[in-house]
C-alpha cells in the first residue's frame, strides 16, 4: 500500500492488519530516510491515546494562573466530555468577548493529504462557527513574502514560477552564486508530498554541464560535495553587505548592465548614490564589505567580475531572510542580478529558495487539485504570523505592517491544529509567559510533544497513516493514494471527525460535513479535481486511481505571468505588477512608509545580534538554527531516523574545532549552549565545515524544560528556540528573525539529566 508524506512516497508492508515496515519506492532515485523510521513512532509511549484536560483548568482554578500551563498534570476524559468542554468554551468565549477572541491562525505544516489537512479543517470549522483571528505570512519566508511584491510585483510566491528551473540552468548558465547555499538535506521535503525526489539528479546535471557553483554561507555543507563548489564563508547576516560590495565594484568599473537597468528597472540612480556613499558618506566598496562580511576584498571584486562576464545566476535561500532586517538580502539579491546582466536571460538571473524543497526549481507548478472548500472568515482581524507572543502579552497595541497599522487583538481561546508553536516560535521562555494569558488553549495532537503538554485540552488525532486520503505536493505532477495502513492509536480520531462532533454540538454539522462521510469526501475531492481537469482524458476514475496508487496530472502549459524574459524583451508590452511596471531598485511606496528599519532602497542595517555587535563580547558565537536533516521540523523527532542522530540523547551541535579547543570541548561531549534568554544541552560535533565563530544547532528537538513553566529553565534536549530572539525583521514584514542570535557554549559537567521530551505528562485519575 502506498504512503505519502511531506518527505516523499513510500510503500507500507502490512501483515495481518499490522504495519510492519515502510520501504522506499523502487522508482524514487533519492528516497528520504525519514520515512522508514515512522513505524515505531506510530505506537510509541508518547502517543496521546485519549482526550486529556489539564488538571488546573478542569478544576476551574483562575484561568490565568502563574506557571501552571506546561507544568500541570492532565486528567483523561471521555470523548463526550471533551466535546462538551470544547464546545461550551467556544460558545462562552464567542458570546462574552466576540469571535475575534478565538485565535485560529494555527500556523504549520501538519501532514500530507488533501482532505485531512489540519489547518483547512480547522479554518472551515472556525469560520462556520462565527470566525476567528487569523495569521498572515509564514515562518518560512515572511520577509520575502512582504518585500518581493514591492520589488518584482505579483503574488508573494509567484517568483517560484518566474525563476529559472534546474534544467534551464544546466543548459544555459555558467556561474551560480548561492547565498545560503542549496542544501540537499532540505530537498527531502515537499509540502503536500511528492512521488519521486528529483533535485539531486537535476543538480548533478548542472555540474555535468559545467556550471560552476559558489557557496556563500557559514556552512560548507550547504552545497552537495559533487558540485565542487567554491566556499566563501560569510559572517552570518551580512549577505546584504557582501552584495553591496559586489554591486559597488560593478558600478565603479562600469561592468553593470546599464541597458537593463534603464529600460526594465526604476530607482537605480538613487540606489547608486547610496552605494557610492553620497547619501551617508560611506562608500559600500569591496574593502568596506570585506570588513563586515569576512569575505576577502579580492574575492568580492572577483565575484563582481565573474558575475558580469559569465552567464550567471544569483540564488538566495530562505534562511538569510529569517533574520533581523531579512527583507534586505532578498531585495538586494534582485538588484544585484539586475546589475549583473543576466536577468531575464534563459537559465540565468535571479531565484530564491532553490533546493529548500524538492519543488523549487524543479517545475513551474502543477494542475489544479481540489482541497476542502474554504469558508470566508467573517472576522477581518489578523496578526503577522510571528507576532503571536506579542498579541498575547500586549493586546490593544498598535503595530506597523507593510504600510498599514493594525491593533493586536485580545485572544482568549487559542486553537492549534497541525502545528507546533513550541517548536516553531522564537524565545520559548517568552512564549511560555505569553501562553499563561489566554483562558483556554486547545490542541489536536498525536503525540505528547511540548505544545500538547502546554495546552489545556488535548484531543488525540489519528496520523496520516491512520486515515484514507490522497496527496498532491507542491509542483509535483502526481496524485498519490494514501490508504489507511493502521488503525488509529488508542481512541484517537481524525481532525475532521472531531470538528464534525463539535459542529454537531454547536448546531452546524450539516454545513460542516455537507452530509458526506470521510470516504465520500476523499472521493468527492478527487472527482472534483478530475472534472475540473477534463474528466476521463485527464485522470482515471477514483477506484482505478486507488488501485494503481498514483495518477499523473496533466502538464501545466501556458505563459508565465511576470516573466523576466518578457520584461527584458519589451518592458512596455510586459510590465511587472509593481507601481512602475518595472523592477523597483528603489521603491517610492516603501520610502513613503517612513520606516527607520526598512528604507526606500536596499540598505545595510546592522542586525541587533551578529558577530559585529557589542554583545559578541559576552556571546561570541553566532547560532545557526537551520532545518534538520533528520526530520521535518519537530515531526518524527521521535522517529528512528532522528533518534539515531542524537548524541547521548541530545541534539547534535556543530562547532569549529578551534572554537571547541578554546573552550575545552571535545567531540561527543554534552555541552550547554546559552545566552541571556536561556540555555540548552546538546551533543558536540567538531566540524571544519562550520566557519569559526558559528555554531549550528538544527531546529526541532522537542523542548524538554527541566522546570516546565519556569522562565529561563534549562532545556535537556537541544531546542535552539530557547536561545533565539522574538524580534521582528522590521516594521515592514514583522517576520521572524530566528537566525539572528548570539550564544556561547561550554562543556556541561553537571550530572546528566535524563531526556524526558518523549515521556507523557503526569496523567491524574479523574475526579
Ligand atoms: N529557530 C528557528 N525556528 C524556526 C525555523 C528556523 O529556521 N529556526 N524555521 C521555521 C519554519 S521555516 C517553519 S515552516 C516552522 C515549522 O513549524 P511547524 O509547522 O509548527 O512544525 P512541525 O514540527 O511541522 O509541526 C507540525 C505539528 O503538527 C502535528 N501534525 C501532523 N499532522 C497532523 C494532523 O493531521 N493533524 C494534527 N492535528 N496535527 C498534525 C505534528 O505532530 C507536529 O506537532 O518552524 C519555524 N521555526
Ligand atoms: N530535512 C528538512 N528539510 C526541510 C525542512 C525540514 O524541517 N527538514 N523544512 C522545510 C522548510 S519549512 C523550509 S522553509 C525550508 C527552509 O529552507 P532554508 O531556510 O534555506 O534552510 P535552512 O536549513 O534553515 O538554512 C540553509 C542554510 O542557510 C545558511 N545560513 C543561515 N544564515 C545565513 C546567513 O546569514 N547568510 C548565509 N549566506 N547563509 C546563512 C545556513 O548555513 C543553513 O544551513 O526547508 C525545507 N526543507
Ligand atoms: Mo518553513
TrEMBL record:
<feature type="domain" description="Molybdopterin oxidoreductase">
    <location>
        <begin position="47"/>
        <end position="504"/>
    </location>
</feature>
<dbReference type="InterPro" id="IPR009010">
    <property type="entry name" value="Asp_de-COase-like_dom_sf"/>
</dbReference>
<protein>
    <submittedName>
        <fullName>Biotin/methionine sulfoxide reductase</fullName>
        <ecNumber>1.-.-.-</ecNumber>
    </submittedName>
</protein>
<dbReference type="Pfam" id="PF00384">
    <property type="entry name" value="Molybdopterin"/>
</dbReference>
<dbReference type="InterPro" id="IPR050612">
    <property type="entry name" value="Prok_Mopterin_Oxidored"/>
</dbReference>
<dbReference type="Pfam" id="PF18364">
    <property type="entry name" value="Molybdopterin_N"/>
</dbReference>
<dbReference type="InterPro" id="IPR041460">
    <property type="entry name" value="Molybdopterin_N"/>
</dbReference>
<feature type="domain" description="Molybdopterin dinucleotide-binding">
    <location>
        <begin position="621"/>
        <end position="738"/>
    </location>
</feature>
<keyword id="KW-0560">Oxidoreductase</keyword>
<feature type="domain" description="Molybdopterin oxidoreductase N-terminal">
    <location>
        <begin position="4"/>
        <end position="39"/>
    </location>
</feature>
<keyword id="KW-0479">Metal-binding</keyword>
<dbReference type="InterPro" id="IPR041954">
    <property type="entry name" value="CT_DMSOR/BSOR/TMAOR"/>
</dbReference>
<dbReference type="GO" id="GO:0016491">
    <property type="term" value="F:oxidoreductase activity"/>
</dbReference>
<dbReference type="Pfam" id="PF01568">
    <property type="entry name" value="Molydop_binding"/>
</dbReference>
<dbReference type="InterPro" id="IPR006657">
    <property type="entry name" value="MoPterin_dinucl-bd_dom"/>
</dbReference>
<dbReference type="InterPro" id="IPR006656">
    <property type="entry name" value="Mopterin_OxRdtase"/>
</dbReference>
<comment type="similarity">
    <text>Belongs to the prokaryotic molybdopterin-containing oxidoreductase family.</text>
</comment>
<keyword id="KW-0500">Molybdenum</keyword>
